[in-house]
Amino acid sequence: MPIRISAAIAVLAATSLLTACGSGTGTTAAGGGAGPSGTKAQTALAPYLQPPAALPVSKPLSKTPPQGKQVYFLSDGIGLSQTIYSGFQAASKELGWTAHVQTWDAANPATLNSAMLSAVNAGADAVAFVAMDAAAIKEGLKAAADKHVIVVGAATGNKPGTAGISAEVNSALVAGVTRGKMIGLGIAAAAEKSGKAAHVVNVTAPVYSSILKPTDDAVASTLEEYCSSCSFDNLNIAAADLFSGKVPQLVVSYLQAHPDTNTISIRAAGLMQNGLVAALKAAGLPSIAIYGDSPLEAQIGELQKGDATGYTGNPLAVQGWQIVDAIAREVVDGNGDVYSSADAPEWWLTTDAKLSSAQPEFPAGYEAQFKKLWKLP
After folding, report:
1. From CA 191, how far away is CA 243, in angstroms rounded?
2. Confidence band (pLDDT; 50, 70, 90) for 25?
3. Which residues are within 8 A (CB) of 162 and not within 5 positions of it... i.e. 6 or more apart?
4. Which of 57, 64, 101, 115 has the greatest number of C-beta atoms within 10 Å?
């Protein structure tokens, strides 16, 4: 999968109602000394060390969904979106639906809303979008509502009940919090094993606060609960620095100014972490532990080589199937919004994880599980 900046996130930056902060730090917790004793964090982390066996939403539909639906996926064309769409397309085919891709140009943010409008006007029964604020597609959402088109968001921070959106899959407000808890537990568990406190810099981008902040906050609160001697500090990356590739340089500068820091927690690793491992080695800082969420193939490869310490799993194709399941639930039973409060499949990946591919999809046999939910043979 090509590792490139997500154009969807770029548009989110362009349309965000938030004010982007500049690069800087803001301490949210402090501590020092030896690490925690006992195994409290290790015990709490244990359930996440194996991939889940079942899907988070597992109630069967009341009947098989009708065939012939026209479902659209708004895509920026990058590898991340293409992988989600591969699952979306495969799931649609199982239901006898026709999947369409409606593309948009990240260089022209207005085309994002135009893509939604085009899908609606083309006769879509449902439209799916990924990692976007509802404000970016305001007119499209209104048009969809006017024509009773089902709209499903994925990996967003939009609140449940946002006007025009039927369901949110992999919500930052639910799954994002779980991911933050897993990262915090991973760091605290390592501190228990080593007997040394973790001094954490949390690398994040305030311009994406609606998506990233729930995870940031969960990392901090989990560390406070499980490792009171650990410290936590935010390194806020401005959008201009992120898109100009300055994240590795800024992280190295922070570490040089804060020599006690021994741990990095990084958001959206597939976007923000590119080049970081090489930069740390070049600066003579190879022993810094790296934790994060949303890794892509490059980051998982670093994990398998021991250059990173722990990541939350990111089953992208499964997310595509979940989007279709949310649409099917809305079509059949009018309850697709069950996903808005549901977690995502979660697996804590470490160097010990036995991965069948560089981008693992789980739970095992998920295709058959979905077909059973849909009452398909």
Report:
1. 33
2. very low
3. 134, 168
4. 115
d(CA 84, CA 56): 17
Q: Residue 37: exposed, middle, or buried by beta-carbon count in 10 A (0-12, 13-18, 19+)?
A: exposed
35-71 pLDDT per residue, tens:
788 999 999 999 999 999 999 999 999 999 999 999 9
In this structure, the chain runs to a length of 377
% of the chain residues with pLDDT over 70 = 91
Taking alpha carbons only, the member of 353, 274, 376, 366 closest to residue 316 is: 366
Question: CB within 8 A of 257, min separation 6: which ones?
Answer: none
- Rounded Cα–Cα distance for residues 301 and 355 (Å): 11
Q: Are 257 and 231 in contact (CB under 8 A)?
A: no
Dihedral sign of CA atoms 241, 212, 164, 361 in order: positive
The strand pair at 70-75 and 126-130 is best described as parallel
Phi, psi of 280 (to 5 degrees): -65, -45
Q: For 34-46, what is the HEC assignment?
A: ECCCCCHHHHHHH
Q: Tell me the residue ranges of DSSP E strands in the chain.
A: 24-29, 70-75, 98-103, 126-130, 150-154, 167-169, 199-204, 231-236, 263-266, 289-292, 310-312, 348-350
* C-alpha to C-alpha distance for 19 and 10, rounded to whole angstroms: 15
**How many whole angstroms separate alpha carbon 217 and alpha carbon 212?**
9
DSSP state of 283: T
| CB-based contacts of 34, cutoff 8 Å, min separation 6 | 195, 196, 197, 229
pLDDT at residue 106, rounded to an integer: 65
- Helix, strand, or coil here: 99? strand
Integer Cα distance of 2 and 78 in angstroms: 8
Q: What is the mean pLDDT of the chain?
A: 90
Task: Locate 38 and state its tokens.
Answer: 């006992």
Give the predicted TM-score (pTM) of the model.
Answer: 0.91
Residue whose pair of structure tokens reads 């007997």 in the numeric block: 195
Q: Cα(315)–Cα(79) distance, rounded to whole angstroms?
A: 13
Peptide bond just before 214 cis, omega within 30 deg: no
